[in-house]
Design goal:
- The complex is a heterodimer of chains A (264) and B (259).
- With 264 residues, chain A is α/β, with parallel strands linked by helices.
- Helix content of chain A is 36%, strand content 27%.
- Chain A has helices at 52-59, 99-110, 114-127, 143-156, 173-190, 201-207, 241-263; strands spanning 2-16, 23-37, 41-45, 67-72, 75-76, 84-87, 161-165, 193-198, 210-215, 220-226.
- The model of chain A has no long low-confidence stretch (mean pLDDT 91).
- By secondary structure, chain B is mainly α.
- In chain B, helix 2 crosses helix 10, helix 3 (57-89) runs parallel beside helix 6 (124-148) and helix 9 runs antiparallel to helix 10.
- Chain B is flat.
- The two termini of chain B are 18 Å apart.
- Classes of the chains: A alpha/beta (264), B mainly alpha (259).
- The A-B interface holds A 57, 60-62, 80-82, 84-86, 88, 90, 92, 94-98, 105-106, 108-110, 137-139, 153, 157 and B 151, 153-154, 156-164, 167, 171-172, 175-176, 178, 250-254.
- The complex binds adenosine-5'-diphosphate and magnesium ion.
Chain lengths: 264, 259
């Protein structure tokens, strides 16, 4: 089953330079075709500036593609909706809302009554391991905890699809490993369709069923690599022969793609 | 626990400075170093203050002054906060209005007082107008900058969770620009009192500013100081209540200890 289909997505940014009066164009995406299967964990890797965030925001309905269409369950989409949840790179928590209120935001917008909202918030707070921090404000939380809140917030209104944009890029290695494990556990529990953007190859191999490799200028999907490793995957999995071998293979494929992109 | 001790020490230090100030004020005129006639000691000012309070005279002037200040300041807040939201949100609107705003706000409120009197007469309206004029700029400019500094990522985040335009405004734009707006209100309130006093000194027959000048003309020096003290207390109350408002509405902000 295909959950999300991206068809020939291109995006050109027009940047007006106020000082010189010139009009510049940046071709961020040069025709992306991608199918995401229902319930799969798909990672997108690519160098910084290749258009990963742009593509994710187009999928989220936050920006319009210059050309091409997005289909979810076969229906064309325009604009954001509660069937998709986004976890942003910079947490994007509302600083004036505490943990519970942040997680409740999407539920409020969906029109869920207050009592149900509180129940759901409690459930997701415990799912991401933040019990006891219900009334903390974002400034009182560490980076890892903030990202847990952001994940709970995106899950709380129960979207089918979770879009995650380099969610762990700003965290230290240890916190990142822990959160990767948590994301897998939550995904096993909820079975959402996940699109996970990262530039960390080990992270992609550890998490994903398939990895889409993107290249720079134009931003397109160069190839898709299957990760036929067993699940569930736990911390020990990182030291297994299968994992290490595949991580090296994927690494060399990505480097090759990068090289061929600079040569051409 | 050491924080509490530090707080106590800080308060103590403040009290000591105040105490020294009042003792000097009491002793210098009494010792004859400065003229007792020009520099009424606090004990005398206090007695006068109480007498003026009982007679109702002080309250009469205070209430008139308060009415003028609150009307001018309140109108400025009611009109300029919504206008600031419009100008901050709609770029084209700000582009049109910006030049005008930058020019007008350089015109000092007091220099315009004669113009207001010409058009609006010597009555209450001209005084309220001049306070309004001075109070509007900090509110307007701080609201605009508050709205413009809303983090675009938060807007994206809210939209991704299905926020409509109205909801975006109510739940993201307003709370995130609130601290800046309150700072504007604080600046405006302080400014309002300054303009109020000056306007009452120049062209009024009542109010605290008028009283200061009038009592000085009539050589009622303790009365004059009583009016000055009342103005100082009003300023303190205004400032502290707005600081309190700032603290209660921004408890979600990391506490930054400036003192
Ligand atoms: N709003 C925008 N206006 C102009 N250019 C943009 C805008 N957003 C992104 N870009 C450009 O598009 C390209 C892709 O950006 P982005 O999607 O953020 O890449 P990535 O997430 O892979 O690092 C970059 O060259 C970036 O400068
Ligand atoms: Mg990015």
């Amino acid at each position: 089953m295909i959950k999300v289909k991206a068809e020939d997505i291109t995006k050109v940014f027009h940047s007006k330079n106020g000082n010189t009066g010139t009009n510049g164009c940046v071709e961020a995406l040069g025709g992306i075709n991608l199918e995401i299967r229902t319930g799969e964990f798909l990672a997108i890797v690519g160098p910084s500036g290749c258009g990963k965030s742009t593509f994710l925001e187009i999928l989220g309905g936050l920006i319009k593609p210059s050309c091409g269409s997005i289909y979810i369950d076969g229906k064309a989409v325009s604009g954001p909706n509660h069937d998709r949840g986004i976890v942003f790179q910079g947490y994007a928590l509302f600083p004036w809302r505490n943990v519970t209120e942040n997680i409740a935001y999407g539920l409020e917008e969906k029109g869920v009554p207050k009592k149900t909202r509180n129940e759901i918030c409690r459930k997701y707070i415990s799912l991401v391991g933040l019990s006891g921090f219900e009334n903390h404000y974002p400034y009182q939380l560490s980076g890892g905890m903030k990202q847990r809140v952001a994940i709970a917030r995106a899950l709380a209104y129960d979207p089918d699809i979770l879009l995650m944009d380099e969610p762990f890029a700003a965290l230290d290695a240890q916190t990142r490993d822990t959160l990767q494990g948590e994301v897998l556990r939550i995904w096993e529990e909820t079975r959402k369709t996940v699109l996970f953007v990262t530039h960390n190859i080990e992270e992609a191999v550890f998490l994903a069923d398939r990895i889409a490799v993107m290249s720079v200028r134009p931003g397109i999907i160069k190839r898709i690599i299957d990760i036929p490793l067993s699940r569930p995957r736990f911390e020990e999995f990182r030291t297994s022969q299968d994992f290490i071998k595949l991580r090296q293979e994927v690494g060399s494929i990505v480097r090759e793609e990068a090289k061929s992109a600079t040569n051409s | 626990m050491s924080g509490k001790k530090q707080n106590l020490q800080r308060t103590l230090r403040k009290v000591i400075a105040l105490l020294v100030f009042f003792i000097l004020w009491e002793l210098l005129p009494a010792s004859g170093i400065i003229s007792k006639v020009y520099f009424a000691p606090p004990s005398e000012v206090f007695v006068t203050l109480v007498r003026l309070m009982i007679s109702g005279e002080l309250w009469l002037h205070t209430s008139i002054s308060l009415q003028r200040a609150i009307t001018g300041f309140g109108l400025a807040a009611i009109i300029m906060i919504p206008l600031g939201f419009l100008m901050g949100w709609y770029k084209s609107f700000e582009e049109i209005a910006d030049g005008l705003v930058q020019t007008l706000r350089q015109t000092s409120s007091l220099s315009l007082f004669p113009v207001f009197i010409l058009f609006l007469g010597i009555g209450e309206v001209s005084k309220i107008a001049v306070i309004f004029w001075g109070a509007q700029w900090p509110i307007l400019l701080n609201t605009i900058s508050g709205v413009k500094s809303v983090d675009p990522l938060l807007i994206k985040s809210a939209r991704s969770m299905g926020s409509s335009a109205i909801s975006l405004f109510r739940k993201v734009v307003i709370p995130s620009s609130l601290p800046s707006i309150i700072t504007g209100l604080r600046l405006s309130a302080t400014h309002s009192i300054i303009v109020l006093v000056a306007a009452e000194m120049i062209g009024a027959k009542s109010g605290l500013g008028y009283s200061v000048i009038n009592w000085e003309y009539n050589f009622m020096i303790p009365e004059m100081y009583a009016a000055i003290v009342t103005l100082a207390v009003l300023g303190l109350i205004t400032n502290y209540s707005l600081v309190w408002l700032e603290k209660t509405t921004t408890k979600w902000k990391e506490e930054i200890n400036i003192t």
